[in-house]
Amino acid sequence: MRKVILLLFAVTAITSCKSSKSKKGKAGKPGIQGEIVVTQKGQEWSSKRPYGMVPIPGGAFVLGQSDMDFTGTDTKSPLTTVTVSAFYMDDTEVTNAEYRVFVNYVRDSIVRSTLAEKAGGEGGGGKGEEGIERYAYLNKKSEEEQSAYQQYLEEHGGRDGYDETKKLDWSVPIEWSTRNYPDVAYAEAMESLYYPPEERFNNERVLDSRKLIYRFTWIDQLEAVKNKGRGKNFMKTESIAIYPDTTVWLRDFNYSFNEPLFEQYFWHKAYSKYPVVGVTWDQARAFCAYSTKAKNDYNQSLKKRKERIFPYRLPSEVEWEYAARGGLENAPYPWGGPYLIDDRGCYLANFKPKRGDYMESEKGFLYTAPVKSFHKNGFGLYDMAGNVSEWTISAYNNSSYIISSTLNPYLGNRIEDPRKVIKGGSWKDIGYMLMLSERDWEHKDSARSFIGFRRVQTTPEGAKVKYPSIQKHQIR
């Protein structure tokens, strides 16, 4: 009898544990007892700092010329207090090395696409192939059973904007040396990507940079809101030739010997840490689009997929000025001011210090300087004055400070003006052009030897971000 009682007690205990465990497993899930319950984990979102970027906290500041206006031009507007949301910003201008990653990706994509198309025409595609067939699209090489969705896409020719059936196989290395070409079909495909013989200098085989075109899509949100619609009617697809214009070193200075920079500045490793120049406004946007795609592709490749990131983009004019101030109030320069040298007589930026004198005595930079050569500002940003001017996403208008909102001021696409605001001054400018409130512009299809760019990424309101303590000291 005693054994029977103990057995019943054990069964009761096991049943109670299972019941308790079952109730515990449901705790915090939506729909408990008919109630909408959101777990605490779902209510918080931590923002991971992108590599090479610093967080800029949101805040209010006085926009415009708060110091003496030496020129009295109509580009100035009454001082206005505005508020800016938080965002991340590149701590330096985009360098030649970083932009070369973009160029190489576009180059390799075009090479692989050309080889894959040729391989398809040759009728190969098996994994054991040794010729050009090694470069066939993945769907032609896969021996595994396709998913229902992949079969559907193949039957219907893919989906708009992306063809699932034409996925490239990046695991196969490209043979660049003519001695290692696997077959004649490969040689034919590769030769089509180089400059034709009649356009070669000293018969040197060089990839035709005119074929390095990046295609990306964006949504015209302002137009969609205006027309109360959405969908493909408001999707804009652009194809941008992305190779920097190296001739800017000759065109910008007709009577100056800049041939060495024309020949070497972008590709030579000695200039890897220098800011990229010769890029148009559209090329800068294309780089931002590629950066977004590269990160999203990586997140989707993980076993535990991560959510899509907020897109990288160019900063607005007001975001740029707010970040450049580094938390200082009414400061003419990122380091405070009012001087362009510190107490030891050292220049605080890369600019033209005197008439005919382009070299800072202790640094020795005639043109651009490697990034991080000068002090960072209170937010941790380098070269927000001098070195190269920087593209912003904002259209230029003399009265934009007056007609735009005081909350995240931005004129958007409502002004059909090909002129875009550039900020910061450059290595060829005098000290006045380095002032934070100084406004300048350039045509968006122009490339210059003194204009570069840096990216920003929006930070959602309420996101958990660790902001560094702002150094509000002024260098005098």
From TrEMBL:
Statement: the UniProt record of this protein carries the keyword Nucleotidyltransferase: no
Domain Sulfatase-modifying factor enzyme-like: start-end pairs: 52-456
GO molecular function, one term: formylglycine-generating oxidase activity
This protein's UniProt keywords: Lipoprotein
Keyword Lipoprotein appears in the UniProt entry: yes
Extent of the signal sequence: none
InterPro entries named in the record: CTDL_fold, Glid_motil-assoc_lipo_GldK, Sulfatase_Mod_Factor_Kinase, SUMF_dom, SUMF_sf
Domain of life: Bacteria
NCBIfam families: GldK
Name of this protein: Gliding motility lipoprotein GldK
Organism: Apibacter adventoris
Lineage: Bacteria, Pseudomonadati, Bacteroidota, Flavobacteriia, Flavobacteriales
